[in-house]
Amino acid sequence: MLKIVNINTYYGQIHALKNITLHLGEGEIVTLIGANGAGKTTILNSISALTPVKKGEILLDGTPIQDLPPSHIVSLGISQVPEGRQVFKPLSVEDNLELGAYLRYRGREGRGAIRQDLEEIFTLFPRLKERRRQMAGTLSGGEQQMLAIGRALMARPRLLLLDEPSMGLAPLVVQEIFGVIENLRREKGTTVLLVEQNAKAALKMADRGYVLETGKVILEGSAAELLENKDVQRAYLGRDKKEVWER
User: Is the distance from CB of 148 to CB of 82 less than 8 angstroms?
Assistant: First the structure.
Protein backbone atom coordinates (compact mmCIF):
# COMPACT_ATOMS: atom_id res chain seq x y z
CA MET A 1 0.00 0.00 0.00
CA LEU A 2 2.57 2.57 1.15
CA LYS A 3 6.29 2.45 0.43
CA ILE A 4 8.88 4.91 1.67
CA VAL A 5 12.10 4.64 -0.31
CA ASN A 6 15.31 6.30 0.89
CA ILE A 7 13.71 9.53 2.03
CA ASN A 8 15.80 12.34 3.48
CA THR A 9 14.18 15.17 5.40
CA TYR A 10 15.76 18.27 6.88
CA TYR A 11 14.89 20.94 9.45
CA GLY A 12 17.07 23.75 8.17
CA GLN A 13 20.59 22.31 8.31
CA ILE A 14 19.57 19.41 10.57
CA HIS A 15 19.41 16.11 8.71
CA ALA A 16 16.38 14.61 10.45
CA LEU A 17 15.72 11.50 8.30
CA LYS A 18 18.57 9.65 6.61
CA ASN A 19 17.65 7.26 3.81
CA ILE A 20 14.56 5.93 5.57
CA THR A 21 12.98 2.93 3.83
CA LEU A 22 9.89 1.13 5.11
CA HIS A 23 6.56 -0.19 3.90
CA LEU A 24 3.00 -0.87 5.05
CA GLY A 25 0.74 -3.53 3.62
CA GLU A 26 -3.01 -3.10 3.29
CA GLY A 27 -4.68 -3.62 6.67
CA GLU A 28 -1.44 -3.79 8.69
CA ILE A 29 -0.67 -2.10 11.98
CA VAL A 30 2.99 -1.06 11.93
CA THR A 31 4.70 0.72 14.81
CA LEU A 32 7.73 3.01 14.94
CA ILE A 33 9.90 2.71 18.05
CA GLY A 34 12.69 4.97 19.15
CA ALA A 35 13.82 7.57 21.66
CA ASN A 36 12.74 11.21 21.50
CA GLY A 37 14.39 12.84 18.50
CA ALA A 38 14.84 9.57 16.60
CA GLY A 39 12.68 10.79 13.70
CA LYS A 40 9.37 9.02 14.34
CA THR A 41 7.14 12.09 14.13
CA THR A 42 9.14 13.40 11.18
CA ILE A 43 8.27 10.25 9.23
CA LEU A 44 4.56 10.86 9.84
CA ASN A 45 4.91 14.54 8.92
CA SER A 46 6.81 13.61 5.76
CA ILE A 47 4.02 11.24 4.67
CA SER A 48 1.43 13.96 5.36
CA ALA A 49 3.52 16.54 3.45
CA LEU A 50 3.78 18.73 6.55
CA THR A 51 7.57 18.39 6.39
CA PRO A 52 8.94 18.41 2.82
CA VAL A 53 11.01 15.46 1.63
CA LYS A 54 14.28 16.61 0.06
CA LYS A 55 15.29 13.25 -1.45
CA GLY A 56 13.64 9.89 -1.95
CA GLU A 57 10.09 8.78 -2.70
CA ILE A 58 6.86 8.08 -0.85
CA LEU A 59 4.64 5.80 -2.93
CA LEU A 60 0.93 5.18 -2.37
CA ASP A 61 -0.21 2.21 -4.44
CA GLY A 62 2.90 2.73 -6.57
CA THR A 63 2.30 6.44 -7.26
CA PRO A 64 4.72 9.07 -5.86
CA ILE A 65 3.00 11.47 -3.44
CA GLN A 66 5.92 13.25 -1.75
CA ASP A 67 5.48 16.46 -3.77
CA LEU A 68 1.74 16.81 -3.23
CA PRO A 69 0.21 19.39 -0.83
CA PRO A 70 -1.21 18.18 2.51
CA SER A 71 -4.83 18.62 1.41
CA HIS A 72 -4.24 16.32 -1.54
CA ILE A 73 -2.66 13.73 0.74
CA VAL A 74 -5.82 13.73 2.85
CA SER A 75 -8.00 13.40 -0.24
CA LEU A 76 -6.02 10.28 -1.19
CA GLY A 77 -7.03 8.61 2.07
CA ILE A 78 -4.25 9.45 4.54
CA SER A 79 -5.15 11.15 7.84
CA GLN A 80 -2.85 12.05 10.71
CA VAL A 81 -3.66 12.33 14.41
CA PRO A 82 -0.95 14.69 15.67
CA GLU A 83 0.97 14.47 18.89
CA GLY A 84 -0.70 16.60 21.55
CA ARG A 85 -4.20 16.19 19.99
CA GLN A 86 -4.37 19.77 18.61
CA VAL A 87 -8.14 20.01 18.68
CA PHE A 88 -9.83 23.34 17.90
CA LYS A 89 -10.51 24.31 21.50
CA PRO A 90 -13.04 27.16 21.02
CA LEU A 91 -15.22 24.95 18.78
CA SER A 92 -17.68 22.29 19.86
CA VAL A 93 -16.96 18.57 19.67
CA GLU A 94 -19.35 18.24 16.75
CA ASP A 95 -17.79 21.18 14.88
CA ASN A 96 -14.33 19.64 15.31
CA LEU A 97 -15.57 16.36 13.87
CA GLU A 98 -17.25 18.04 10.93
CA LEU A 99 -14.02 19.88 10.13
CA GLY A 100 -12.46 16.46 9.64
CA ALA A 101 -14.84 15.99 6.71
CA TYR A 102 -14.03 19.41 5.20
CA LEU A 103 -12.71 18.05 1.90
CA ARG A 104 -15.76 15.84 1.57
CA TYR A 105 -18.03 18.89 1.86
CA ARG A 106 -15.95 20.66 -0.79
CA GLY A 107 -16.39 17.64 -3.03
CA ARG A 108 -20.16 18.07 -2.73
CA GLU A 109 -20.62 14.73 -1.03
CA GLY A 110 -24.10 14.31 0.37
CA ARG A 111 -24.50 15.60 3.91
CA GLY A 112 -26.36 12.42 4.75
CA ALA A 113 -23.23 10.29 4.35
CA ILE A 114 -21.21 12.68 6.49
CA ARG A 115 -23.88 12.72 9.20
CA GLN A 116 -23.91 8.93 9.13
CA ASP A 117 -20.14 8.87 9.66
CA LEU A 118 -20.56 11.34 12.51
CA GLU A 119 -22.93 8.92 14.21
CA GLU A 120 -20.38 6.12 13.70
CA ILE A 121 -17.79 8.21 15.54
CA PHE A 122 -20.28 8.68 18.38
CA THR A 123 -20.74 4.91 18.46
CA LEU A 124 -16.97 4.40 18.68
CA PHE A 125 -16.64 7.09 21.37
CA PRO A 126 -19.93 7.42 23.29
CA ARG A 127 -18.47 10.13 25.54
CA LEU A 128 -18.11 12.39 22.52
CA LYS A 129 -21.82 12.04 21.82
CA GLU A 130 -22.59 13.06 25.40
CA ARG A 131 -20.40 16.15 24.91
CA ARG A 132 -21.21 16.94 21.28
CA ARG A 133 -22.19 20.57 22.08
CA GLN A 134 -19.33 21.10 24.56
CA MET A 135 -16.29 23.19 23.65
CA ALA A 136 -13.35 20.94 22.83
CA GLY A 137 -11.03 22.86 25.12
CA THR A 138 -13.08 21.84 28.16
CA LEU A 139 -12.71 18.10 27.52
CA SER A 140 -10.35 15.87 29.49
CA GLY A 141 -7.10 14.75 27.87
CA GLY A 142 -8.55 11.35 27.03
CA GLU A 143 -11.67 12.87 25.50
CA GLN A 144 -9.55 15.24 23.42
CA GLN A 145 -7.56 12.26 22.13
CA MET A 146 -10.79 10.51 21.19
CA LEU A 147 -11.89 13.69 19.42
CA ALA A 148 -8.60 13.97 17.50
CA ILE A 149 -8.94 10.37 16.32
CA GLY A 150 -12.60 10.87 15.44
CA ARG A 151 -11.78 14.02 13.48
CA ALA A 152 -9.19 12.12 11.43
CA LEU A 153 -11.65 9.29 10.78
CA MET A 154 -14.23 11.73 9.39
CA ALA A 155 -12.02 11.99 6.30
CA ARG A 156 -12.57 8.24 5.72
CA PRO A 157 -8.85 7.37 5.65
CA ARG A 158 -7.39 4.16 4.30
CA LEU A 159 -4.21 4.91 6.25
CA LEU A 160 -4.29 6.39 9.74
CA LEU A 161 -1.12 7.97 11.13
CA LEU A 162 -1.18 8.03 14.94
CA ASP A 163 1.39 10.05 16.89
CA GLU A 164 1.67 9.13 20.59
CA PRO A 165 -2.04 8.41 21.21
CA SER A 166 -1.45 7.28 24.81
CA MET A 167 0.63 10.26 25.94
CA GLY A 168 -0.45 11.56 29.33
CA LEU A 169 -3.55 9.36 29.54
CA ALA A 170 -4.79 7.03 32.27
CA PRO A 171 -4.30 3.30 31.61
CA LEU A 172 -8.04 2.59 31.24
CA VAL A 173 -8.39 5.36 28.65
CA VAL A 174 -5.35 4.04 26.78
CA GLN A 175 -6.88 0.57 26.75
CA GLU A 176 -10.10 1.98 25.30
CA ILE A 177 -8.29 3.90 22.58
CA PHE A 178 -6.12 0.93 21.62
CA GLY A 179 -9.26 -1.18 21.44
CA VAL A 180 -10.73 1.27 18.94
CA ILE A 181 -7.56 1.11 16.84
CA GLU A 182 -7.71 -2.67 16.70
CA ASN A 183 -11.41 -2.52 15.88
CA LEU A 184 -10.78 -0.13 12.98
CA ARG A 185 -8.36 -2.59 11.43
CA ARG A 186 -10.63 -5.56 12.07
CA GLU A 187 -13.94 -4.01 10.98
CA LYS A 188 -12.88 -1.53 8.31
CA GLY A 189 -9.48 -2.80 7.19
CA THR A 190 -7.84 0.51 8.12
CA THR A 191 -4.05 0.50 7.83
CA VAL A 192 -2.30 2.11 10.81
CA LEU A 193 1.18 3.57 11.24
CA LEU A 194 1.65 4.05 14.96
CA VAL A 195 4.18 6.10 16.91
CA GLU A 196 3.84 5.16 20.57
CA GLN A 197 5.92 5.80 23.69
CA ASN A 198 4.62 2.58 25.26
CA ALA A 199 6.68 0.24 23.09
CA LYS A 200 5.41 -2.92 24.74
CA ALA A 201 1.75 -2.03 24.19
CA ALA A 202 2.44 -0.95 20.62
CA LEU A 203 4.27 -4.17 19.73
CA LYS A 204 1.58 -6.32 21.31
CA MET A 205 -0.97 -4.68 19.00
CA ALA A 206 1.15 -4.31 15.84
CA ASP A 207 2.00 -6.77 13.09
CA ARG A 208 5.47 -5.35 12.46
CA GLY A 209 7.77 -2.65 13.72
CA TYR A 210 10.76 -0.49 12.88
CA VAL A 211 13.28 0.76 15.43
CA LEU A 212 14.77 4.20 14.73
CA GLU A 213 17.86 5.89 16.06
CA THR A 214 19.04 9.39 15.09
CA GLY A 215 17.03 9.43 11.87
CA LYS A 216 17.89 5.92 10.69
CA VAL A 217 16.14 2.56 10.75
CA ILE A 218 18.45 0.31 12.76
CA LEU A 219 16.17 -2.71 13.14
CA GLU A 220 12.95 -4.07 11.67
CA GLY A 221 10.91 -7.23 12.04
CA SER A 222 7.65 -8.75 13.15
CA ALA A 223 6.23 -7.51 16.42
CA ALA A 224 6.92 -10.90 17.99
CA GLU A 225 10.57 -10.79 16.86
CA LEU A 226 11.08 -7.30 18.26
CA LEU A 227 9.48 -8.23 21.57
CA GLU A 228 12.00 -11.08 21.86
CA ASN A 229 14.98 -9.00 20.74
CA LYS A 230 17.30 -8.42 23.71
CA ASP A 231 18.45 -5.00 22.47
CA VAL A 232 14.84 -3.85 22.15
CA GLN A 233 14.03 -5.30 25.57
CA ARG A 234 16.95 -3.49 27.15
CA ALA A 235 16.40 -0.14 25.43
CA TYR A 236 12.59 0.11 25.30
CA LEU A 237 10.98 -2.63 27.36
CA GLY A 238 13.18 -2.74 30.46
CA ARG A 239 16.49 -4.47 31.12
CA ASP A 240 15.29 -7.90 32.08
CA LYS A 241 12.84 -9.94 30.02
CA LYS A 242 11.26 -11.44 33.13
CA GLU A 243 10.67 -7.97 34.54
CA VAL A 244 9.08 -6.87 31.26
CA TRP A 245 6.45 -9.60 31.20
CA GLU A 246 5.69 -9.31 34.91
CA ARG A 247 4.79 -5.61 34.70
Answer: yes
First-to-final CA distance of the chain: 35
* Residues in contact with 4: Cβ distance below 8 Å, sequence separation at least 6, in sequence order: 20, 21, 22, 23, 43, 46, 47, 56, 57, 58, 59
Domain assignment of residue 126, yes or no: no
Q: For residue 220, is it within any domain? A: yes
The continuous run of DSSP H or E covering 78 comes out as strand 78-81
Total domains present in the chain: 1
Rounded Cα distance between 32 and 11, Å, is: 20
CATH code at 37?
A: 3.40.50.300
Each residue's pLDDT tens digit, 25-43 = 999 999 999 998 999 999 9
Cα diameter, the chain: 56
Q: What is the pLDDT of residues 174-213, one digit of tens each?
A: 999 999 999 999 999 999 999 998 899 999 999 999 999 9
**What average pLDDT does this structure show over 206-231?**
95
Averaging pLDDT over each range in 110-114, 135-139, 230-234, which range is the top one? 135-139
Task: Using alpha carbons, select from 56, 58, 86 the residue that is nearest to residue 70.
Answer: 58
- Domain enclosing residue 241, as ranges: 2-84+157-246
Structural domain contains residue 9: yes
Burial class (CB in 10 A: 0-12, 13-18, 19+), 38: buried
Nearest to 31 by CA among 138, 173, 178: 178
